[in-house]
Amino acid sequence: MISLVSVTAGILSVPELSIPEGVTAVIGPNGSGKTTLLRLLAGIDLPEQGTIRIDGKPPRECNSGWVDEYPDRSILFPAVLDEIASPFRFRKIPGDEIDGMVRKITERMGIESLLHREIRTLSGGERALVSLATACAGDPDILVLDEFDAHLDRDLCRITDNLLKSSGARYVLRCTQRMAMAASAACVIYLEQGTILHSGSPSQVFPHLAGTEFFPLQGLAGI
User: Fold this and answer.
1) Dihedral angle of Cα 93, 97, 101, 104, to the nearest 10 degrees
2) pTM for this structure?
3) Is residue 71 part of a domain?
């Protein structure tokens, strides 16, 4: 369980919040504090006050993976192979084992054809997939994605949605503007002006958002 107690950071103020295992969608208007919440959970930023615990540990003591809306912000290496291999190399895994691990993750994501490309030659969607593969390669306990699907078409979104659910990460937190994707999550968190107004299952949250842009137009039967 992820727990937040008396957490403040910038516009964000969270008196208390519990996030279960599985995929959680974070939604809300621009400027509502979604990215701030995700950066805190990934351990990139620290709260001004309050405590965050992931299975009893602070975020920075957990193995986390992060994918930014703009992949170039987190990509470190010019070659796709080197980028995806970097989590293994940082962990000092023997080089003869790394090639097999990289091949396995790229095959699972269906991006084997990108493995010997240069990052600069990739499209925005391809860069997002490489960033996701790199984040998953480190076997994270928590995988955090800040609107990474903004650069993906509908078909790629469906593929990555299934990949996230089978990523092996105990917690997947994703901010998205695609409400059909949010409706397929186990948990939904809705923010406005730094406040969490609704959290729970899609069937608990989305009825409160009927008539707004955050109510999914598809998949209503499952809500």
Assistant:
1) -170
2) 0.88
3) no
